[in-house]
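Section 5: illustrative case.
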């Protein structure tokens, strides 16, 4: 869960997509979908965003409530450590809106902090499927009012997001576990910290060991780019290359230790990214998986409907609408 907590504490990360377009919130067809789900929610309803992250979907519900004079009471819960207001304190207008939402940090779906039969509507974007689904379903049904509903969008096994996550896991695993590029870069920084104080910056440029190790790093990077040459793969490889290259671009005699710390930081940042992508793949549902949730809901006495949300004519996620 730490790799998610770190993500939600990254400045500018708003939405419930685990990766990508992180600062854009909900727009276009997706925004329209969620507004349609909220359209028939009664005035004064209590709305809970499950797996809220930094509150993008909760914020959409709040904005919809204000625009349509619905007077919703909006909550956001997440199993990770979250503090949306603090994260956006440098964006006063956004922080002011987020203060109108009640956020519950380190609160899994399986253990909601609400009274039995107290919630009108629960919404979730890529969240419900990450929980223990049986326990989460039980908790949701217990907490919803009679006639209350859950609407959740869950990872679809044929979505572009899932396909990209598979690519990301494969490429990042190769780079972080099998490629020597980070070890080579660390060796070069170690060498620089020993050599530059003695031979100076100009001497370092012509230092044979620097030239040899630099060429080795460049060769390793080129090899990765050739091995993962498809556009979607190259996006990941080139991102890593740019991160490492930026460190050497700014390296000088005064900041060598800072550069070493930055290299380690980039490695751990990429590994956390890989762990989140793995979580997405674990949470991804086939139609059979999604139907299992439907059957469990119906067995518990709720009505449930499964559908596919398409965006740009491709599957985006499974939609589950459950009414208690």
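Designed sequence:
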């Amino acid at each position: 869960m730490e790799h998610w907590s770190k993500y939600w504490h990254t400045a500018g990360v708003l939405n419930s997509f685990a990766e990508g377009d992180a600062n854009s919130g909900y727009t276009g067809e997706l925004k329209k979908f969620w507004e349609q789900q909220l359209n028939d929610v009664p005035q004064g309803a209590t709305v809970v965003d499950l797996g809220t992250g930094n509150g993008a979907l909760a914020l959409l519900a709040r904005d919809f409530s204000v625009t349509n004079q619905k007077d919703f009471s909006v909550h956001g819960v997440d199993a990770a450590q979250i503090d949306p207001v603090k994260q956006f304190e440098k964006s006063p207008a956004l922080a002011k809106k987020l203060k109108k939402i009640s956020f519950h940090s380190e609160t899994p779906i399986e253990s909601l902090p609400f009274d039995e039969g107290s919630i009108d509507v629960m919404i979730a974007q890529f969240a419900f499927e990450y929980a223990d689904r049986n326990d989460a379903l039980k908790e949701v049904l217990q907490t919803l009012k009679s006639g209350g509903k859950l609407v959740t969008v869950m990872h679809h096994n044929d979505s572009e997001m899932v396909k990209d996550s598979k690519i990301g896991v494969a490429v990042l695993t190769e780079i972080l576990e099998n490629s020597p590029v980070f070890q080579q870069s660390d060796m070069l920084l170690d060498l620089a910290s020993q050599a530059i104080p003695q031979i100076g910056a100009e001497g370092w440029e012509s230092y044979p060991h620097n030239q040899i190790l630099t060429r080795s790093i460049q060769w390793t990077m080129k090899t990765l780019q050739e091995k993962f040459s498809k556009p979607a793969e190259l996006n990941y490889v080139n991102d890593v290359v740019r991160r490492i290259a930026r460190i050497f671009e700014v390296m000088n005699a005064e900041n060598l230790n800072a550069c070493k710390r930055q290299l380690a930081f980039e490695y751990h940042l990429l590994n956390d990214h890989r762990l989140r992508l793995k979580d997405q793949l674990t949470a991804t549902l086939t139609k059979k998986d999604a139907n299992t949730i439907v059957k469990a809901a119906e067995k518990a006495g709720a009505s449930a409907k499964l559908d596919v949300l398409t965006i740009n004519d491709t599957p985006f996620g499974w939609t589950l609408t459950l009414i208690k």
